[in-house]
Design goal:
alpha/beta, globular, 10 helices
């Protein structure tokens, strides 16, 4: 039992802590891309045999609770800008992924890109404030042919096989359990375009590659 004020502060700051904890690996992912390093290997080095480690893995960090409590707290903060900087990191992940795709594939106009997931969190139908929507808008601004599939959300999306058929890039925007199945990766390798670029910031298949071509990814997964 506690006071209503303390209960609300505990709830808000729990969300702030989670949002900040996820911003750090997201910023690290961007630094690793710039330095041609592997973010998952660096995270393993940080956490290995170090009692003060514990950095999380990257991903598209969003959701109404996290973003709402962050914005509310920033408005009243005694250190204005600190929380905003964390928000800017997480909010820039869709643009980072888009730019990574463009660096590897070039212009995206009239090229099919499959986006797997609309929900902000794995195995939920809640797409409020999901960064998948921002990613889709960014892709559409590049005139890409975007196909979206999510097995959980109420928003109509295309079937999985239709989404990945002949796709030149596949982006895992939500780490649903269906997408973590090795059969999903096998289907992408079989049905998408030859050497389709797979973008997996969640490391769904344990290949430890944010950006990898489907044949390379399948070989890495098979060797583990």
């Amino acid at each position: 039992q506690t006071t209503p004020v303390q209960a609300e502060l505990a709830k808000i700051w729990t969300n702030i802590l989670r949002y900040t904890n996820f911003a750090l690996p997201n910023l690290l992912m961007m630094d690793c891309e710039r330095s041609s390093a592997n973010v998952f290997e660096v995270i393993d080095l940080i956490n290995r045999d170090y009692p003060r480690g514990g950095i999380a893995k990257p991903g598209l960090t969003a959701g109404t609770c996290l973003r709402k409590d962050f914005a509310f707290s920033e408005e009243r903060s005694h250190a204005p800008g600190m929380l905003l900087a964390v928000s800017r990191v997480n909010e820039s992940v869709p643009l980072f992924l888009l730019e990574g795709v463009k660096r590897r594939l070039g212009a995206l106009a009239n090229r099919k890109v499959a986006v797997l997931g609309l929900a902000f969190k794995a195995d939920t139908d809640d797409e409020r404030d999901s960064l998948a929507h921002k990613l889709i808008r960014l892709l559409e601004r590049e005139l890409a042919d975007v196909a979206v599939h999510d097995p959980h959300v109420p928003t109509p999306t295309v079937p999985f096989q239709e989404a990945i058929d002949d796709a030149e890039a596949v982006v895992v925007a939500t780490n649903h359990s269906e997408f973590r199945d090795p059969l999903t990766l096998a289907a992408i390798a079989e049905r998408a375009s030859r050497d389709c670029l797979v973008v997996d910031p969640w490391n769904c298949w344990g290949a430890a590659q944010v950006f990898a071509y489907s044949s390379e990814l399948a070989a890495l997964v098979a060797s583990r």
